[in-house]
Amino acid sequence: MAAQCYQCSVVSLSFDVKPGGRDCFYQDMNQGVQYELEYQVWAGGELDINFVMQTPNGNSIFFGDRKQNDAHRSQAAESGEYVFCFDNTFSHISTKTVFFQLVIHDDAIAVTGSHSQDESELSAYEITLESFKKSMDAVKESVEKSIQLQRQFSSIELRDRSIQEFNFERINFWSGLQLFVMCSVGLVNVLMIRGLFDDRRQKVTPNTTKIRT
Prior knowledge:
This protein is α+β, with helices and mostly antiparallel strands. Helix content is about 40%, strand content about 35%. It has a single domain, classed as Jelly Rolls.
């Protein structure tokens, strides 16, 4: 799912990586643009996964070795299709749920127009537009930071809820198993003690004979 904002594009994904699997995503970027990426494992196993980012020429420029979350910010060194891969081949049991976000800042995106005005009026407009652009850039940066913080808090909350639900199910399972074992042991003990008393009664009962007169 991709969303557009002022002078930037944001790509946010949440997906599952199967045990022993490897999922890759591709994104075109122009040379010189600033980008930010962030990923976090929400659920599955020990909440870790391998990550690698590759340039269009196949060079690996960012690694994440069995990490729960990580972030990276840099500038695209070349134009082309960049590759982002999540590797879960080290796990043979657990499926990993991953959140991934990529923010691409493109200063080339701007509103342009043409007007037939005097040079003095154009200069005044340029000054006004420049100050307005700076204000809008500051607001945009603040809004982007707020959105990223909200997404981080949301991902942390979802991860904690997943851990709590897993622990709750595990506690219920083991508690039920222990209760069943305790009841079974108690029942066996009652039957064994009752059997001992029945045997004693059979042994102690005297044989009585009647004397005729």
